[in-house]
UniProtKB/TrEMBL annotation:
It holds the Pfam family YlaH. This is YlaH-like family protein. It comes from Cytobacillus gottheilii. The chain crosses the membrane at residues 21-42, 54-87. The lineage of its organism: Bacteria, Bacillati, Bacillota, Bacilli, Bacillales. Keywords: Membrane, Transmembrane, Transmembrane helix. InterPro entries: YlaH.
Length: 103
């Protein structure tokens, strides 16, 4: 059965019952998680034009990831990546605060 092979987010958004709404919700989820992971791990301060180009390609690439994300854990992987990067940023901030107070 198709329902058994769906990824968590695809099953959560009921892609098999309502494909139009489910795929849009999966797409929006993947786009938002991709933007979050990009901002946490890779983004640098760029001029507006370059940022528009980068985010346009990121959103375009998420279209392919959405189709893959129906049966593969794409969104779930992005959640794990975001959590790891959030923990890294928190630890980095704490370490910088400790170094500043030690000086």
């Amino acid at each position: 059965m198709v329902e058994e092979r769906l990824s968590f987010f695809a099953a959560l958004f009921k892609v098999h019952e309502n494909p139009d709404l489910g795929m849009w919700l999966l797409y929006i989820t993947i786009v938002l998680l991709s933007i979050l992971v990009f901002k946490l791990g890779f983004a640098k301060k760029l001029p507006l034009g370059k940022s528009v180009v980068i985010y346009s390609f990121l959103i375009l690439g998420c279209t392919l990831l959405t189709f893959l994300g129906v049966f593969l854990p794409v969104a779930e992987g992005l959640v794990v990546a975001a959590l790891i990067l959030i923990i890294y940023k928190i630890r980095l901030h704490q370490e910088k605060k400790q170094q500043a107070s030690a000086e």
